[in-house]
């Protein structure tokens, strides 16, 4: 029993330690509510502009956001924000211009970071530039953005930081349209090494738990079968003399009678 308990404890420790390597997926309901709240802003496409394949110097820098521009982000038909390694993922950037001047959209870029340390850059993703993309005053627009993480990136939870660069009156600005987690999965499907490990570990825990319960039931049944023997004085029935005829007991009884006479 001691070996079974030790094995059960070791397996439980392995399960707890493996949680560090297991991706933590946000709940579907929370993601859906976030998408619904942002859907009003990204529902209408006004001026997407043409996407340029040429690399341009659009002046990426540490610009501040404009107080007249609001941006949000939606993963269409992907509220869980699942990103398959090596495959393109689409997201929509909603921009609302509340100022009096037109907003000229220059480019969109993003990067992947470790969730527990944002300073650790994992990968710089696609930089997508636009030609003649503008958002008029008091108008909202939607800009599509496609990105792909490396196919060699290990499945897990990462932070995605997306930035959109634009100009207002030839003054550059930038907004961070998304700064949150994504779930990277393998290209072969949702079944990964971690999933197989968890299933195997869970099965082993069930087996060990069954053995432990069985041992406890066996110990309980043994305790109930034990008979407690009490030792004390008791009277001898006369009928028991028939079983003692010819024994030392009867001889000693007859000797005592003769002695009394």
TrEMBL record:
What protein family does this chain belong to? Belongs to the TRAP-alpha family.
Location within or outside the cell:
Endoplasmic reticulum membrane
- Which is an annotated Pfam family here? TRAP_alpha
| Comment text on domains | Shows a remarkable charge distribution with the N-terminus being highly negatively charged, and the cytoplasmic C-terminus positively charged.
Query: Which residue positions does the secretion signal occupy?
Result: 1-27
What is known about what this protein does? TRAP proteins are part of a complex whose function is to bind calcium to the ER membrane and thereby regulate the retention of ER resident proteins. May be involved in the recycling of the translocation apparatus after completion of the translocation process or may function as a membrane-bound chaperone facilitating folding of translocated proteins.
Name the source's superkingdom: Eukaryota
How does the entry describe its membrane topology?
A: Single-pass type I membrane protein
The UniProt subunit note reads as follows:
Heterotetramer of TRAP-alpha, TRAP-beta, TRAP-delta and TRAP-gamma.
Listed transmembrane segments: 195-213
For this entry, the protein name equals: Translocon-associated protein subunit alpha
Q: Which organism is it from?
A: Lactuca virosa
Keywords annotated in UniProt: Calcium, Endoplasmic reticulum, Membrane, Signal, Transmembrane, Transmembrane helix
What's in the GO CC field? endoplasmic reticulum membrane
